[in-house]
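Protein in question filed below.

…
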Amino acid sequence: MEFLQEYWPFLIPLILIDLGLKLFAVLHILKHNSFRFGNRVLWLIISIALNLIGPVLYFTIGKGDE
């Protein structure tokens, strides 16, 4: 457990960024109907299952034109 204590200052911001991006991506997916690739269920699974990369993928290649 002492091993993790020295990394907490680096892990806490990463965890908060990950949770914030996931929340923002999930809310955006639920509010919008148009996607460039795939459908709503696919993007929800990708955004939730893939840590930090899923929401970034959604906002870069999945988000449709509004």
